[in-house]
């Protein structure tokens, strides 16, 4: 097999589509090039891998298949100063069959490959657990979806593949010692680490959490950090979150517990004055865990935390929104992950919190908590910044359907040759243009069950096509007509030359 075949089989994913990232030339605040993630409705092939490895169009693979299974998963760690070798050492020391790679921007991908597919939900859950154990729980997990809405045009999200322009690639994997691997070395290095589904489910990711006597019913992030100690720069926030736990666990003696935690877990401990300040903050009102702040955010395991007696609780964090996909039709369809389930939305359903809640109730039996309008706008814009666009064939859009019906109205029905014929509700072909009335076109649309455009929308669409508006006087009656060039409705025939006939066949 070729190198492209090896990569194709290793990263085998979606059987309906693949992705690519189109860079627009601008950069974000971190210096990362901005662009648009596009999904192409074509099956990924070894030929596409060949182009990718040679430095052609970059390839993205969607891990989830049409039957909602996956044979590989990944953690996408978007940190530019990350120590890849340190991650490799942690993984190997705990006998985790994962592979660490460098992303184009300097971040990391952590892949797990299986011998057979598993349910996407199982892959996502286990990769989430691994990310939390490694201290990167805020990272994106692939597969991003546990199910895809195939009948709605949904495809799932893709991950950019390693070894683009293989010989000079900045996207490469590391061996056990932290050395970079060539593309050829990579496919051989991976083989012993491809694991069975049974072993995958048995993997112990508890190495990131060493249970503490007084924290076994609290957030796993605090357990993890208490095991390794809170260093300088994070101590005040750390003690605050420990104080929140103490108040929940022992409402009568929590202040004493805060002082104890300061001595046990903070290195070095905060001063008596600083501890007093934290206690005063906690006494002002019912504060809750600062899940989005350092140092606990990287070690968050929300699903586990929800199950703990003194964790965040079932509704404390609200609904998790992620992986926004735009089916780029006319109008567009938006598909969004809401607590891991896919929800189909119109544009109003995406922008209106009330409409969004209605759709969630209807589709997934969930009523998301209302947030402040500004917070909602920020959440939606954040999702739009990482949007995946799925392109659809022109004839699958309202615009495409409209243009097909416009053609049938003007070119496939009876044609008028004089101005007076316009009164017969048909298109009139005079010289090099085709004339018609909007009311007649709209009747044709309605007869063909096209009810998506008002007269105003038809006017706008005709203007987009370059149509011109004129005023005719026909039989003493004023008539407003629109026209397009006749060649707009002409089908160009391409002459295909016959292959040459061998001379012996002529004789």
Task: Kindly describe this structure.
The chain is an alpha+beta fold. Mean pLDDT is about 85; it is low at about 490-500 and about 500-505. The protein is built from 18 helices and 17 strands. The two termini are about 45 Å apart.
Low-confidence stretches: 492-498, 501-507
**Percent of residues in helical segments?**
25-40%
N- and C-termini, Cα separation: 47 Å
Task: Label the structural class.
Answer: alpha+beta
Any idea what the radius of gyration is?
Answer: 30 Å
Mean pLDDT: 87
What percent strand? 15-25%
| Count of distinct structural domains | 4
**Largest pleated sheet:** 6 strands, mixed
Q: What is the CATH class designation of the largest domain?
A: Alpha Beta
CATH topology of the largest domain: DNA primase, PRIM domain
Write the layout of secondary structure elements.
Layout (H helix, E strand, L loop, with lengths): L2 H8 L7 E10 L5 E8 L5 H8 L6 E2 L7 E9 L6 H10 L5 E4 L5 E12 H15 L5 E3 L16 E2 L22 H8 L6 H6 L17 H9 L6 H15 L4 H12 L6 H13 L17 H6 L13 E7 L5 E6 L2 E5 L1 H5 L1 H12 L8 H13 L2 E3 L7 H14 L3 E2 L10 E4 L2 E4 L1 H10 L7 H10 L3 E7 L2 E9 L17 H4 L1
Parallel strand pairs: 2-12, 9-12, 13-14
Antiparallel strand pairs: 1-2, 3-8, 4-6, 4-7, 5-6, 9-10, 10-11, 14-15, 15-17, 16-17
Helix pairs in contact: 1-2, 8-9, 8-10
